[in-house]
Design brief:
Structural class: alpha/beta
Shape: globular
Strand content: 15-25%
Order of helices and strands: HEHEHEHEHEHHHHHHEEEEHHEEEHEEH
Number of helices: 15
Distance between the termini: 33 Å
Number of domains: 2
């Protein structure tokens, strides 16, 4: 099966080798980590000895502990050359970090691993490697990659398909017209994350509420809420749970990398709030699947999610902005680079125009300010230096 190389990720990973640190690839299931790791292996094959372990391959089922992992790597190593240890789904090996810690310290080794569970990776790796690792987060296909994978030109029809199906890489092998098979595939990914990464790993008992919570968040993506507000809402739906349970289950969903928590940021006070967050899905297709594909009524939420993913993919830390009681959809920060972004399907209505442009005008610093819409002619608007862009153009821009 031919692999379409996602060169931006491959180059980023290879660029981080040779620094005495393990490189950890994170992301939700089927975001493409395995294929990217295979591309890295192919690129490294001419530079040294590649030791590749796919822990979902039955051939490696006997490697269950750090001792067996250590022995396998030692036997597969070659003297007088550089050894690259690449392990896919490393969390399947008990206490894997004990073995990898040894090899990371050796000058003749580089280590790259993938994992699908955030809490396991952040806790085990942070404590065991004592800072000797770097993280590369792998997301679903962005719009530019979507066009490449599907061999499409940038146009309204292609953009509509991206907003509908999202960026699970394997989907490009299923005909766009085969709606049922594509939908079933997305559903199977959700079910795997639901059962394997949460229910079994965390011993969740109230599985019905766990599922309802994901669907609630999908239907309310882009809205500010708290564990308390969700608990009250669910109680009204005859599903009584505590705010602590809501918080615990939301943490479990975020730990799968399927859902991101976005905190609020006070632009004037430059302070991050610890309550009342927004949540966005890391793949638009999974989000739409949970909402039964309500694209006609949800287009604003979907568009906002697409812009969020673009900012995240470009390396920004993303927040929801607050200023004098008004909301800025996104405050994106990357080192000393700051962008303010408003998202709306269109700004033709006077009240919508005032909300999107007016909120940005209140910000008195000189960082770039954007209004992103579906209107292809929005770039004709020139108002107070605010950059108005069609969504398609923005998602293809190098930020």
């Amino acid at each position: 099966m031919e692999i379409i190389e996602r060169k931006e990720y491959v180059n980023q990973i290879i660029g981080q080798l040779g620094n005495g640190e393990a490189v950890v690839l994170t992301g939700h299931r089927r975001a493409g980590k395995s294929c990217i790791l295979e591309s890295v292996a192919k690129n490294l094959s001419s530079k040294g000895n590649v030791i590749y372990l796919d822990m979902e391959n039955p051939d490696h089922a006997d490697i269950t502990s750090f001792r067996e992992l250590h022995e396998y790597i030692k036997k597969a190593s070659q003297p007088d050359t550089h050894n690259y240890v690449l392990i896919d789904e490393v969390q399947e090996i008990e206490q894997f970090e004990k073995a990898l810690r040894f090899f990371v310290k050796q000058a003749e080794y580089d280590v790259v691993v993938t994992g699908s569970n955030a809490s396991m990776l952040s806790s085990d790796i942070a404590s065991s490697f004592a800072g000797r690792y770097s993280r590369v987060h792998i997301g679903s296909l962005d719009y530019e990659e979507f066009l490449v994978f599907y061999a499409l030109d940038d146009n309204d029809a292609a953009f509509a398909q991206y907003l509908r199906w999202g960026g699970l890489p394997f989907l490009h092998r299923i005909a766009m017209s085969d709606v049922r098979t594509r939908t079933d595939y997305i559903g199977s990914i959700y079910d795997t994350i639901f059962v394997k990464d949460i229910v079994r790993r965390r011993n969740i008992r109230n599985v019905t509420f766990l599922d309802n919570l994901a669907r609630f968040v999908a239907d309310n993506s882009g809205k500010v809420f708290s564990a308390n507000s969700i608990a009250k809402y669910m109680k009204g739906k005859e599903s009584s749970v505590s705010a602590n349970t809501v918080a615990e289950y939301m943490e479990a969903w975020c730990d799968t990398y399927m859902i991101d928590k976005v905190k609020r940021y006070d632009i004037k006070g430059k302070q991050v709030f610890e309550q009342q967050e927004k949540y966005y899905f890391e793949d638009l297709g999974i989000r739409n699947y949970l909402c039964n594909d309500k694209r006609n009524t949800d287009i604003e939420k979907i568009l906002e999610g697409a812009v969020y993913l673009k900012l995240k993919r470009c390396g920004f830390d993303v927040y929801v902005g607050q200023l004098n009681g008004k909301e800025i959809d996104f405050v994106a920060k990357r080192d000393n680079d700051v962008r303010y972004v408003q998202v709306s399907v269109d700004v033709t209505a006077p009240e919508t125009y005032e909300r999107e442009f007016g909120n940005l005008k209140m910000i008195k610093d000189n960082y770039p300010k954007y209004v992103i819409t579906m209107d292809p002619n929005v770039s004709l608007i020139h108002d107070s230096g605010i950059i108005a862009k069609p969504a398609r153009e923005f998602l293809l821009e190098k930020l």
